[in-house]
């Protein structure tokens, strides 16, 4: 069916590209783009939730084509997707993106492992795609928050009753750069096989469970620390001897948390008070003290030096529905070794207002989230003496 004949709203103007810095010319750098996009899976795109969207525009067969076109249009080197159903990853996104030079990894939410095959294929999860001309995969890691909650509950009732039942996940890919990923390298210089850990996560959605969101994020940070330590050991077997701090980090996803939340405070500043309001009336201190650093009294900390590519001055909202408009999607990067050169600006608010677009999806906007896109310049954290060729796992 040619759905487009029903569209009367004009196309939105292209989202602007916002330049932030000029690339270096006097040292080796790897410039790459990262996308983060919650595509709104079919089973959650219900008429009850999105009654303002015409049913034909809510239809997955219509939306998936627009989503894929959008992804291909921006052509990011690393693509992080949330709410991808298992069947759609293997039968649609992966084969289509392979045609454009990508490979990818995927995991559904934890509930899938307890389902029959006929049901499992409709469970949504996270996906990471990477451009094979710039990156190769060393190892993938799955972070299951319900398993971590159970392992660290120590009999704590609200850890078992509130955190453990939520089957959200994080997915991480340990990548290494290829020879062609680098600019400004001297002709006789050895290849730089810089390792980079890319993680995407989809944190629990319900605003009533802000404590769960924060616990999931804190457990994720601890798992990333462990993964980086494991990754350093993995790379040793490939004759690349380095410290976990030599592995660079990009963390992004749908954190379902506003910029003033404990989740974003923790990720952005590296610390959060043990009595932060987002813990609500629940004390998780005994559990969290086992897995997190407490460098200062009454604070939980992590050691990553992260910065958010976006802020509310650039992007007033990343999720746009009838009853909620706000920033809940983020791209964090290692601020000591990466510099944002530019990013994709917001969808035109004039277009939204003039055409009375009260929420998305919409015939011209295929999810209720807007994709984020940043161009990062990365400098190597490994020296020539540390370099070695790492083969695919």
TrEMBL record:
<keyword id="KW-0378">Hydrolase</keyword>
<keyword id="KW-0963">Cytoplasm</keyword>
<keyword id="KW-0540">Nuclease</keyword>
<keyword id="KW-0269">Exonuclease</keyword>
<protein>
    <recommendedName>
        <fullName>poly(A)-specific ribonuclease</fullName>
        <ecNumber>3.1.13.4</ecNumber>
    </recommendedName>
</protein>
<dbReference type="Pfam" id="PF03372">
    <property type="entry name" value="Exo_endo_phos"/>
</dbReference>
<dbReference type="InterPro" id="IPR005135">
    <property type="entry name" value="Endo/exonuclease/phosphatase"/>
</dbReference>
<comment type="similarity">
    <text>Belongs to the CCR4/nocturin family.</text>
</comment>
<dbReference type="GO" id="GO:0046872">
    <property type="term" value="F:metal ion binding"/>
</dbReference>
<keyword id="KW-0539">Nucleus</keyword>
<dbReference type="InterPro" id="IPR050410">
    <property type="entry name" value="CCR4/nocturin_mRNA_transcr"/>
</dbReference>
<dbReference type="InterPro" id="IPR036691">
    <property type="entry name" value="Endo/exonu/phosph_ase_sf"/>
</dbReference>
<dbReference type="GO" id="GO:0005634">
    <property type="term" value="C:nucleus"/>
</dbReference>
<keyword id="KW-0804">Transcription</keyword>
<keyword id="KW-0805">Transcription regulation</keyword>
<feature type="domain" description="Endonuclease/exonuclease/phosphatase">
    <location>
        <begin position="36"/>
        <end position="369"/>
    </location>
</feature>
<dbReference type="GO" id="GO:0004535">
    <property type="term" value="F:poly(A)-specific ribonuclease activity"/>
</dbReference>
<dbReference type="GO" id="GO:0005737">
    <property type="term" value="C:cytoplasm"/>
</dbReference>
<keyword id="KW-0479">Metal-binding</keyword>
<keyword id="KW-0677">Repeat</keyword>
<keyword id="KW-0460">Magnesium</keyword>
<keyword id="KW-0433">Leucine-rich repeat</keyword>
């Amino acid at each position: 069916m040619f759905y487009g004949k029903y569209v009367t709203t004009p196309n939105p103007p292209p989202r602007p590209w916002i330049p932030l810095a000029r690339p270096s010319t006097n040292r080796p750098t790897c410039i790459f783009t990262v996308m983060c996009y919650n595509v709104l899976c079919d089973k959650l795109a219900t008429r009850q939730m999105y009654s303002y969207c015409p049913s034909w525009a809510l239809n997955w067969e219509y939306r998936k084509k627009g989503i894929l076109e959008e992804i291909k249009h921006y052509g990011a080197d690393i693509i992080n997707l949330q709410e991808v159903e298992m069947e759609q990853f293997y039968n649609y996104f992966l084969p289509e993106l392979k045609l454009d030079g990508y490979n990818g990894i995927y995991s559904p939410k934890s509930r899938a492992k307890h389902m029959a095959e006929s049901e499992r294929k409709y469970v949504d999860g996270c996906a990471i795609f990477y451009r094979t001309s710039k990156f190769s995969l060393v190892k993938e890691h799955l972070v299951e928050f319900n398993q971590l909650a159970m392992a660290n509950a120590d009999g704590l009732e609200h850890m078992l009753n509130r955190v453990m039942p939520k089957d959200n996940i994080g997915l991480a890919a340990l990548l290494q750069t290829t020879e062609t990923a680098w600019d400004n390298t001297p002709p006789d210089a050895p290849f730089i096989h810089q390792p980079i850990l890319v993680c995407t996560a989809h944190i629990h959605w319900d605003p009533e469970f802000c404590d769960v969101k924060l616990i999931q994020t804190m457990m994720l940070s601890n798992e990333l620390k462990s993964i980086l330590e494991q990754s350093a050991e993995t790379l040793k077997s490939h004759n690349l001897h380095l410290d976990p701090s030599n592995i660079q980090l990009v963390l992004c996803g749908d954190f379902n948390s506003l910029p003033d939340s404990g989740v974003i405070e923790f990720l952005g500043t590296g610390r959060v008070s043990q009595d932060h309001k987002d813990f609500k009336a629940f004390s998780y201190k005994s559990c969290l003290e086992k897995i997190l650093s407490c460098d200062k009294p009454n604070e939980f900390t992590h050691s990553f030096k992260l910065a958010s590519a976006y802020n509310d001055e650039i992007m007033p909202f990343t999720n746009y529905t009838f009853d909620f408009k706000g920033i809940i999607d983020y791209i964090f990067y290692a601020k000591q070794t990466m510099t944002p050169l530019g990013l994709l600006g917001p969808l035109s608010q004039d277009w939204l207002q003039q055409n009375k677009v009260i929420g998305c999806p919409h015939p011209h906007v295929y999810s209720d989230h807007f994709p984020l896109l940043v161009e990062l310049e990365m400098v190597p954290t490994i020296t020539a003496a540390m370099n070695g060729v790492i083969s695919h796992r």
